[in-house]
Description:
The structure is a single chain. The protein is about 65% helix and about 0% strand. It is mainly α. It has one domain (about 5-190): Hypothetical protein af1432. Helix 2 crosses helix 8 (about 125-150) and helix 6 (about 85-105) runs antiparallel to helix 7 (about 110-120). The longest helix is centred in the C-terminal third of the chain and has 24 residues, at about 125-150. The chain is globular, with a radius of gyration of 17 Å. It comes from Brumicola pallidula DSM 14239 = ACAM 615. Its EC number is 3.1.3.5. This is 5'-nucleotidase. One of its GO terms (molecular function) is 5'-nucleotidase activity. Keywords: Hydrolase.
Amino acid sequence: MNSAFLAWILRMPLIKRWALMHAVKNENVAEHSHQVAVIAHLLAVIRNTYFKGTLNAEKAATIALYHEVSETKLQDINHVTKYHNPDLTREFKKIEEMAELECLKTLPVELQPIFKPLLVQKEVDPEYKALVKAADLISAYLKACDELRFQNSEFSHVKTRLEKMLMEFRNTMPEVDYFLTIFQEKCFVSVDQLAE
């Protein structure tokens, strides 16, 4: 059997994020997934180094790489639309799970048990899922801050909403607070300032 799995993954650069909003810098799902993987890896390393964690940082990064796999079939769904009301959210989650399972089934049957806890969000270990969720929010938050840096006020409400969500993570996951304290500021300087 030929597998369509990689073909679906390779379509990630075609899927635009923030599709309903004007963006100074366009972003696609592949770029976002890469950033979330880097952030999740850093968060896991920070937890293990400073806060007595025992996570596998490489596993965290891998889960993050696949966390938007449903969007290869569904596109990026606007947050406000997806979470407009609980009934709608439940239906979106069902559709996303169907897309994740469809993607999983494109793999050879012997590989499916290995990939299921990476691709299917219901199957992801809760500790890793929370870490990847924090990384996902951080990535979106940094995007909103970057857009505002270029005077794109379209992202002002996004930044406010994400700050509130991140505050909960900062209070319950010290690695998130550490990450933002150490890394956030330099994300918005010029390339010349990075070299200083």
